[in-house]
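[step 3/7] fold_predict: job queued, chain A
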Amino acid sequence: MDRLFLGIETSCDDTACAIYSPERGVVAERTASQLDHGIYGGVVPEIASRAHMKTLLPIFETVMEEAGVGLGELGGIGVTQGPGLTGSLLVGLSFAKAISYGGGVPLAGIHHLEGHMLANALEDDLSLPALFLVVSGGHTQLILAEKIGRYRFIGGTRDDAAGEAFDKIGKLLGLPFPGGPAVERAARGGNRAAFDFPRGLRRSGGCDFSFSGLKTAVRLAVESLGVLTDALVMDVAASAQEAICEVLAEKSLLAAKKTGVGRLYLAGGVAANGRLRELMGGMLGPEGIALSWPAVRFCTDNAAMISCAAYHHISAGRRDGLGLNTFPRGGLDSWA
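[step 4/7] structure written:
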C-alpha cells in the first residue's frame, strides 16, 4: 500500500500543493504562479499573501482529487515553515495546521532550503554524503549533507543572493520579470567577454560569495552605455551571467575539495540555468566529482520537494504541534 504525504509551499509568490509517495514518486502536483508582480519589478508581499488565501484551497482540493486520496489516508503533511515572506508563510502554515488537526494527520514544518535540496530525491536516490549548492532568488549557500537531517554550513553569500542579482540585472536591462530566465535567454546571443565584471571574493580562499559589487558594476555599465541596443543587452547579459556562474562553480569546486565529497547536487531556481550547469560540469568532472540536479520543474519553488521532505521527517518520528510558527530568516539546522 502506498504511503502518501502532502506538501504545501507558500514561501513567496507561488502557491503549490503536491502528494508524494516513496513507492511511486510524485503522485499529483499543482502550482499557481502569480503574474501580477511583474508590473512592480518584484514580489509585493501583501499581494502575494492575499493571492495565496484565494488559491490554496482550490489547489489542495484539485491535488487530493487527482491523487484519489482522502485526508485521513495521508501519512503526513509537510509545510514550508521558513525562510520566506511572513504573510505568505502564515497562509500555508495556518492551512496545514487546520487540515492536520481536522484529519488527525501528523504535521512537519519544513525548512525551505532542505526542501530544495531534497528535490534531488524526487526522481532518484540521493548519494550521501554530498555537497549541495542551493542557489535561488533568496539564497546562495553551500551545505554539506552527511545524511538526510544532518547538515553543515560550508559557505554562503555575504550580501545578495545570486538569483537576486539575476533579477536586478534583468530589471536594469529592461527584461521581463523574473530576471533569471530572461537574462539567460538574452545571454545566448551575447559575448561573454564583452564586459569584465567583477567576481566577488574570487581569491579570498574561502567558500563565501558576494554579488553586490557585480550588481553595482552592471548598473554603472548600463548607465554609461546610454541607449541599450539589443546587441548591448545581450552582451551585458552574457557577461554578467558568466561572472555569476563562474564564481558559483569555482567556490563549489573549492568546497568539494575541502570537504572531500565525490558528488555535488544543485538546488534552487538558479540550478535551472544551463550555463551554470555547463561550467559546473566542466570544473567538477575533471576532478572526479559527480554533478546532479533536479528536473527543471523541481528547481523553482514547488510543493513536491516539501512533500518529499515531509516523508523523511515523519518517517523518522518528527512531529510538530499546533504551536508551530513561521520564520522569515534562519539557517538550516540538523534534526536527525
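[step 5/7] annotate
Strands lie at 5-9, 14-21, 25-33, 76-82, 107-111, 130-135, 140-147, 150-156, 263-267, 290-292.
Residues 7 and 306 are 5 Å apart (CA to CA).
exit 0
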